[in-house]
């Protein structure tokens, strides 16, 4: 019914079919492959890698981190060219930006982060604080919510060097008020890094307009790059000459093929690269970014909201003793929902075995990730009813 009225329903057919799959509710952890990507990977291996061999670097690979970065910036981040690059993993680009940001605010002693942020983000902040002799200031957030301008205002001040938050909380799906929080942090004279892992490709985030300083995000979640696909980083153009990142590799140097003595960072966003980029793993990202461009990020978001609304209504109806651990208000919710129930840990193995694939999140949450272009309403219905049936 809802699928019949969905203007984006047909896009689901562009994804590779999976045998025995009843409901894939984890597209926010690992996006499904596009049929176009399977073809592109084969062609790439035969014609570009196999055919052009080392000449490929001169013929375009060298520039792919920045040309694809610009494309991602245009399609999903409303970012002007020259500020976004595809590189490394989220963990590594985040480390680079955390170091660059703390070093750019000498004399300030604190890094601010929320206690429920993704483990890699928290661990990196702890590590950078140790390296630089800084203190971590933790922001506590509600279980079904996340950071707000008020909570952030209490935590930042003249000692804050940098604050790191996620645009969409990985567990609760809380969608932060990015422009308002960015302003609060700027008023304190600090820099902000937004982790866009759970919003890139599903929630529009106009970074230039919102005055964001720095951002990172994931290539294998809603950008469907495949397991271990590279991440992206965004550095606002005005900050590029002011910031210095710590992993001084040859690919971020001003003249990689001169192989000269002494590192000199390349000008602009290229100076934020480090080592040889994963050209193979960027191939599937090209197809998903092109698909988001074809559909339009606002239309993707509209379907995402409709999917999470539908999932919440259905959970309320068929699993009434589960607790929604995500915002009910659509404007404050990202592309997934988490529901809590004491027996979820117990039923997970059988669900996965029967082709119903949500994600378990401690202590007792099931997270339903609804990637808009590959998930149907019927699939959500089958998945939620299967969870209800397992609970008996
Ligand atoms: C998925 C995710 C990561 C993953 O980092 P990797 O380096 O790819 O392992 C980091 N931060 C957040 C918020 C995430 O959701």
From TrEMBL:
Pathway(s) served: Cofactor biosynthesis; NAD(+) biosynthesis; quinolinate from L-kynurenine: step 2/3; Amino-acid degradation; L-kynurenine degradation; L-alanine and anthranilate from L-kynurenine: step 1/1
Keywords annotated in UniProt: Hydrolase, Pyridine nucleotide biosynthesis, Pyridoxal phosphate
Record Gene3D superfamilies: Aspartate Aminotransferase, domain 1, Type I PLP-dependent aspartate aminotransferase-like (Major domain)
Hydrolase among keywords: yes
Family per record: Belongs to the kynureninase family. Belongs to the trans-sulfuration enzymes family.
Cofactor: pyridoxal 5'-phosphate
A GO molecular-function annotation: kynureninase activity
Protein name as annotated: Kynureninase
Job of this protein: Catalyzes the cleavage of L-kynurenine (L-Kyn) and L-3-hydroxykynurenine (L-3OHKyn) into anthranilic acid (AA) and 3-hydroxyanthranilic acid (3-OHAA), respectively.
Catalytic activity: L-kynurenine + H2O = anthranilate + L-alanine + H(+); 3-hydroxy-L-kynurenine + H2O = 3-hydroxyanthranilate + L-alanine + H(+)
Pfam family, one: Cys_Met_Meta_PP
Native species: Antiquaquibacter oligotrophicus
InterPro entries per UniProt: Cys/Met-Metab_PyrdxlP-dep_enz, Kynureninase, PyrdxlP-dep_Trfase, PyrdxlP-dep_Trfase_major, PyrdxlP-dep_Trfase_small
Subunit description: Homodimer.
Top-level lineage group: Bacteria
Listed EC numbers: 3.7.1.3
């Amino acid at each position: 019914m809802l699928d019949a009225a969905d203007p984006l329903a047909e896009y689901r057919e562009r994804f590779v079919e999976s045998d025995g799959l009843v409901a894939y509710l984890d597209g926010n952890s690992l996006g499904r492959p596009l049929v176009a990507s399977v073809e592109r990977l084969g062609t790439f291996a035969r014609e570009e890698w196999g055919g052009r061999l080392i000449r490929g670097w001169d013929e375009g690979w060298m520039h792919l981190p920045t040309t694809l970065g610009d494309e991602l910036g245009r399609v999903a981040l409303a970012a002007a060219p020259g500020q976004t690059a595809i590189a490394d993993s989220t963990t590594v680009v985040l480390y680079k930006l955390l170091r660059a940001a703390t070093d750019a605010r000498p004399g300030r002693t604190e890094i601010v982060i929320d206690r429920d942020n993704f483990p890699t983000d928290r661990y990196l902040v702890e590590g950078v604080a140790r390296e630089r002799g800084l203190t971590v200031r933790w922001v506590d957030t509600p279980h079904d919510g996340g950071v707000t301008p008020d909570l952030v205002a209490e935590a930042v001040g003249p000692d804050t060097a940098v604050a790191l938050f996620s645009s969409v909380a990985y567990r609760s799906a809380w969608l932060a008020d990015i422009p308002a929080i960015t302003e609060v942090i700027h008023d304190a004279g600090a820099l902000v890094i937004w982790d866009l892992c759970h919003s890139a490709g599903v929630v529009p985030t106009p970074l230039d307009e919102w005055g964001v300083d720095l951002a990172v995000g994931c290539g294998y979640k809603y950008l469907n790059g495949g397991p271990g696909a590279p991440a992206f980083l965004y550095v606002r153009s005005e900050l590029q000459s002011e910031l210095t990142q710590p992993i001084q590799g040859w690919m971020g140097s001003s003249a990689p093929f001169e192989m000269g003595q002494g590192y000199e960072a390349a000008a602009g966003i290229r100076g934020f690269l480090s080592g040889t980029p994963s050209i193979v793993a960027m191939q599937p990202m090209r197809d998903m970014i092109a698909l988001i461009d074809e559909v339009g990020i606002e239309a993707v978001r509209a379907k995402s909201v409709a999917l999470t609304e539908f999932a919440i209504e259905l959970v309320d109806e068929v699993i009434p003793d589960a607790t929604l651990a995500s915002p009910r208000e659509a404007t404050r919710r990202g592309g997934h929902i988490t529901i809590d129930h004491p027996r979820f840990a117990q039923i997970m193995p059988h669900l996965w075995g029967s082709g119903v694939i949500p994600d378990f999140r401690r202590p007792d949450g099931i997270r339903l990730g609804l990637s808009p272009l590959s998930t149907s309403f019927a699939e959500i219905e089958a998945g939620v009813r299967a969870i209800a049936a397992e609970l008996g």
